[in-house]
Amino acid sequence: MESIISVKDLRFAYEDEEGELQTVLDGVSLEIEKGSFVAMVGPNGSGKSTLAKNLNALLLPQSGKVYADGMDTSDDSLLWEIRRSVGMVFQNPDNQLVSAVVEDDIAFGPENIGVPPEEIRQRVDSALEAVGMSRFAKQAPHMLSGGQKQRIAIAGVLAMQPDVMVFDEPTAMLDPRGRGEIMAIIEQLHDAGKTVILITHFMEEAARADRIIVLKDGKIAADGTPREIYSMSEQLHGMKLELPFAVELARRLRAGGLDLPADILSEEELAEALCSLK
Asked: Helices 102-112 and 117-130 sit at what angle, rounded to 10 degrees?
C-alpha cells in the first residue's frame, strides 16, 4: 500500500537545564500506510510525543527526514500544506480552543487558510455532526465537559480536512466514560478512511489499532499487529507498560505454570484457553 508518512533516520534532542543535549529520538525510521490505524506506545520519555510533533512540522528533524504525503517537513514553503494534510489533536483540549463560541472555534482554521465562507459553514456543520456535537454549536466551549471539549478540538481539526489525524494522548485528561467516547470517534474516523496515528499510554486503547509501534529510549523497540506485540508481554511488562487485563492475567498465569498461548488479547480468548486446559 501507499505510504502517507515516511520517517527516515530521524534524530532529535532537547537541551537540558545544564545546556547539555539529551537525545529523544535516535535514528527512527518508519512508514505509515494511507488509511491505516497506528498506535504508538512506550515508557515516559521514550520519544512518542516528540515523534508525533515531527510528523506535521511542529518540530523539525535535527537529522534525518520526515515526509508527509510526499512533502518534506523541512521545506518552509510547504509548511501550511503539511499542516493541512496532517492534523493534530493534543492532550489538553483547553489549549486548543481559541473562541468563545463552539462553531466559531471550528471555523477558525478554515478561515485562516482562506476557505470561502459558504464552504466554511458546510465544514463546520459536517465536523460537528462527525463528533456528535451539532446541538452545542452556539455554546461557549468553557461550559462543556472535558470530553465534550476534546470532541470540539477534534472537530476543529476535521474542518481543515486533513488526510492524517495524529492524536497525542487525547484521552489522558478524561474520565473512563470520556475516554470511551473519544476512542469511539477515533475509530469512526478511521472507518471513514482517515489515516489515524494514536499516541497513548493506555495499552487497551492501542489494542484497537491495526498496528502498534513500541518506542523505548528514542528507538523503535517493536513494531507489529496488536496480537504480535502483546505476545511480548514479558518485555512490555519490563518496560513498565500497563498491559490490558486479559494480557496481564494470562502473563501471570503462565508465570505460575499454566500452559496458555502467548498471544491472548481478549477476556474471551483467555476464558477459552483456560477452559481447554486439562
From this structure: 130
What span, in angstroms and rounded, lies between the C-alpha atoms of 50 and 58?
A: 9
Angle between helices 117-130 and 146-158 (to 10 degrees): 140
Q: Which three cell numbers stand for residue 274?
A: 483456560
The amino acid at 200:
T
pTM: 0.91
State the sign of the Cα–Cα–Cα–Cα dihedral 192, 195, 201, 207.
positive
Is residue 43 classed as helix, strand or coil in its secondary structure?
coil
Q: In the predicted model, is pLDDT for residue 161 greater than 80? A: yes
Partnered with residue 86 across adjacent β-strands are 164
- Of residues 246, 245, 274, 243, the one with CA closest to residue 260: 274
**3-class secondary structure, 40:** strand
| Closest-CA residue to 120 (of 135, 103, 99) | 103
Distance CA 22, CA 35 (A): 34
Per-residue pLDDT tens over the stretch 30-77? 999 999 999 999 998 899 999 999 999 999 999 999 999 999 999 999
- pLDDT exceeds 90 at position 208: yes
One-letter amino acid identity for 278? K
pLDDT of residue 6: 97
Mean pLDDT for all residues in the chain: 93
Domains present along the chain, CATH in parentheses: 3-225 (3.40.50.300)
